[in-house]
Structures are given as C-alpha cells and as structure tokens.
C-alpha cells in the first residue's frame, strides 16, 4: 500500500490541493469571465434576481469551501516540508512556493473576509425582496467591493499559479545558493502588499482602477499577466 | 519539483575523494532535540562540522536546491526523492548533469522524474563531499 508513506501523504495532500483549487478558481473564473459580463447585459439585468437567489448561494458554497480546502492542504504541505523534511525557508523551493502561497493566502482571505460577508448580505437582500420585503440598501452599496475583491483575486491567480508551478517545474529560477533571498522578498512583498492594499483601500472609498471593475474581464487578465511578469522579473533579477 | 524518485537508497562504496577528517568536532544534535528552525539548517540536517569548505558549500547547494524533493537529512527519504547520503561522485555526475545512472547501477525506482541540473556542474564535487559526510556522520 504505497499510499501509506510520506510520499503518499504528500501526494494525497497535493491531489486534494489541486481538486479544491480547481473547484475554487474554476468558479472564480466563472464569476469573472462569464457571470459578471452577463449581468451587465440587458438580459442579465432582467435575470439578476434569479441569478442571485438561484445560482449564487450554491456557487458561493463551492467557492468558499474550495478556497478553504485549498488553503488548508497547501498549509499542510508546507508545514510537512518545513518541519518533517527540514526544508529551509531560504531554499529555492520554499522561496518560490511561498511567493505563490502568500498570494494564495491573500486570495483565501479575500474570499472569506471580504467577498463572502458581502455576498451573503446580497443574497439575503434578494431573498427579502422576493418575499415582498425591503432590499438591504447596504448590500447594494457593498456589492462593488466584493466585485473588486473578486477581480483582484482573478488578477492574483496568474502570478500565484506561476510561482506555485515554478517551485516544481521552473528550477532555473531557483536562487543562487550563495546569495541572500532577502532583497527578493522585500520587493516581492512590496508589490504583493500594494495590490492587496489597493483592494482594501478601494473598498474604503479610495479610487480604484476602472480596468479592474469593468464588466469585461480583459483588463483584469492583462493586469494579471503584468503582475506575473513584474514578479518574475524581480525573481530573475534578485534570485 | 518532480525530482528524484530516481536515486536509490542502495549503499555504495565510499566516493573516490579522500574522506573528511574524522570527528573533528562533529556534534550530532541530541536525539529528539529541538524542532528544526525554518531558515536555519534544520536539526535533521547533518551539521557537516567534520568536513571542510567543500562540505559546507555542498550543504549550501543541497539545502537550496535538492531539498525541493529530497529530505534535508540525506539519510532520510524526502517528499519526492529518496535518501541519497553517500551517493558517489559518478552517480551524482550522471544523474544531475545527464539524467542517467552510471553503468551497472540499478536504480530502485526508475521513475526518471528528476530533472537535469546542468547549472550545478561546478558543485558536483561539493555535493559528493557533503553527501559522503552526511553518510559518515548521520545526525543521530
């Protein structure tokens, strides 16, 4: 029974990490590439109540639990590597996987602590209206914040997967063992934190980038490619 | 990484290089000692204190690159790659630079998932020194 081994443990964790990640990001892309552009059309406007009450609760359930299981399995993989296998934080694998892991953790935070609290209010408001009651005025005001968080996560997903994949499949990017990884991390953290701050400050009324919030996803895809390129150049230069 | 399911745990003759001076201050960590500290060479990793500069350089490369798949203690299996303490210079050169095994060597698991690392050509001797030292002075 090969599965009862450390290799099997890693493999099971990675299997569920991928399954949960596909579930999560698949629905994220459905929201961003399919549902949001649809809701901006005339037909979508007419269907908004049905979409919110009929599709959103189920989609959000798979979405947020997909995020949770992706996060937890990823955390277990990293903890096992660190504390069972003794892989140093400064190693090439850890440098790259934790860059992806930091982005993924912010995405998980955005799902559970930005998007879901707003969406559950939006769903409750739509249910109240359908039952003949009043709409929650706060829900309508907050909805764009969830939208910006969702767009930010879509943008984040490109460099996230780049670095997670690179940790195992782009080994030329590994750091020079004789150099410190500190400068790399300082710049990477500045870039990643700035993107997250843009989201959180945008949700407090500060100006946000229109290309992120437009119904068409082309802006966010380009922004994600640009962010991946920027973080890659940082790795290429400092590692 | 998809690296080295390839190298086997099979024992090998000692590498051709002279053995590091024995027991010059090799201090294995106490059994069941402190948990490894991320960022520092972990408790599970050989101290290499018995070796020279080549052992230290080899450890640096090993911890930075090889631990993606191999255990930080080369005497133990890693997440993907098996134990490789004591791997000979010939085996390292064949596996790391050419993705092959030396003639007559039978890998335990011929999965061939370990990629080549041509950029480590200058570190083969250091890695061999470190892995020989790790076999001679396992951490417990």
Task: Tell how many strands the DSSP assignment of chain B holds.
Answer: 0
Summarize the amount of helix of chain B as a percent range. 25-40%
What is the gyration radius of chain A calculated from CA atoms? 20 Å
Tell me what portion of residues of chain B adopts beta-strand conformation: under 5%
Average pLDDT metric of chain A: 93
Most extensive interface, chain pair and sizes: A-B, 26 and 30 residues
The description of the largest β-sheet of chain A is:
none
**Oligomeric status of the shown chains?**
heterodimer
Task: Give the topology string of chain A: H per helix, E per strand.
Answer: HHHHHHH
Helix content, binned percent of chain A: over 70%
Question: How would you explain this protein's 3D organization?
Answer:
Helices cover 81% and strands 0% of the residues of chain A. Chain A is built from seven helices and no strands. In chain A, helix 2 packs antiparallel against helix 3 and helix 3 packs antiparallel against helix 4 (137-169). With 140 residues, chain B is mainly α. Chain B is built from three helices and no strands. Chain B is globular and about 30 Å long. The interface between A and B is medium-sized, with 26 and 30 residues.
